[in-house]
Amino acid sequence: MPQKKLHTFLLLFFCFFFFANSLAQAQTPLKRKILAIYSSSKEINDPSLTSLHQNAEMPLNHLGLDVYYHDVNKPLPSSKKMRDYLGIISWFRGTITMKNTTTYCRWLKQQMLQGIKLVILEEPGFMANSWDSVSGSCQDVFELLGVKYLADYQDDPLFTEIKFKDSSMVEFERKISLNEGLDDRLIRPIAATVKPYLQLTRTNSKNSKSTLVFTSKRGGYAAPGFVIYENVDLIHRHWRINPFKFFAKAFGIENSPIPDTTTLNGNRIFYSHIDGDGIFNMSKIDRKSFSGEIIDEGILKQFSDMPVTVSIITGYLDIQKFQSVRSFQLYKNMFTRPNVEVASHGHGHPLNWRKGTLAITPPGYVFSAKKEIQGSISMIRELLMHLDIKKTVDLFLWTGDCLPNESQIELADNFGAFNVNGGDTRFDRQFPSYAFVYPLGLNFSKSRQIYSSNSNENTYTGLWEGPHYGFKILIETFQRTESPIRVKPANIYYHFYSGERHAGLISLSSAYEYAKKQDIFGIFTSEYARIANDFYVTKIFPLKGGGYEIRNKGYLKTIRFDNTDLNIDFNRSKNILGFRHFQNSLYVSLGEQGPYKIFLTSKIPTKPYVIQASFHVGNFKHESKKISFTKQ
Fold it and tell me: Which residues have C-beta within 8 Å of that of residue 616, sequence separation ≥ 6?
């Protein structure tokens, strides 16, 4: 080959190599998926009932992680499928029935060798009893984590003392007491990367120091009794480990950008929604008005600047006594209000979605999931046309137990409708722990259920048997899910039957009055559903120079960085509206359209930007000394 052609070939080769390498870097997003392993034989074949879902998933979501569930007794995912996962987490409690422990341990080992991190909470799952020893590939799993598992179980606090503890990690909500479910087994670090947070020693035995809570470069472990304290009889539950800090360290994401579903333009998201139950109940307030009429006048009209999603049960439209002029006038009064969004709450209001039991049975109707979801939405669309109201319906609010199966959720998805409800988050004097704060939703293989951000008045009022003023402490959940960590939007979720009694109406009014005084960004529930769904599809690509490119559908508009005092570098960033420092976190507000590029700097910006806004900001421009924008 001639010299000149050789040089040309080499130049083209190197150009192609560097282009392909840069493209590969740009097209590889940060991994956010976590595989949660549970046992159907122990936990009733439903991941929504597991401790992983009810307790661990919320802090994982808060850290930007997307959790999927897998039954350990089914064929384990292939290594090819696991390439998209950042880590694996398990939380087995008590005796576990696992079909093949050797296969499971070999699979875990294989994933860890591929760089996937492993977090084990309480029992590892591959031992029949707490006092069993482990060997072979199961011991290899512990050794990859950086420790040697020596068993030698002991549960006698008289012969045990705390050798070392990091209180910021292991006494998050409750102090450690060796009289509360002590579970000591000898675990010794063998790698320098192991970071211990709790170590015990035995006064009746030499060389007995054991590391029971630790993280390492390959994950982390927290032994039984030191993850969470629980008293079932008293409904007491408190985290011992700090789940936010522990998971961030164990999965190696302490400085990663986080898609945030709690905030818009620096302000806390607020939304409210009404389930259609009790709309035609006679109110005891004046003994002549429907409860729905009381809510319409006392809440929807009174708080006309607050967004409310109003749902109805369409089965009432097929029952003669609810087909009066007065009934339709109530629908029209509510649905024409500018601050009201319309949604469906089913046709017969299923109480149990798996069994199809109904709260309302219109003439000739038998349960049909399609009728409940798609049929009810179609009926409301027709009702709006009949009332000459130019609004649409694209939201379904789950009824009853709020436990649909995947095919039922897909009925909403396939009809172009979002779904919300379930979860029942509370964080107040009766439920004083993050352990009662539910995650964003529940992932299925092809669909997902989005949970409401707070529980409704049913759980505060003894299923509306009393005390009817119970909902007044909703404000405590608002406060505790906002500070010291903002983990949830503010959400007022209730039923029309709250209009039956003064106590219910006053409690509602108090919640709205409180919300109005906060720095909030009010949205309809369907917009929150869009934001929540966008969390799961948001992709974050690392860029050369330490920046990130964000790609999503444009509904989720906030990226959060924790534990930083850095600012946005507007000279290198793209499509960024502004930012706000709040609670030692940086909340970055994304612009109107993506893709978005974020670069951080220690320098203070010299150009104008949005710190907080209670509305969508469009066409934000600044020229010379002039700033212009549109309120959207």
Answer: 264, 265, 631, 632
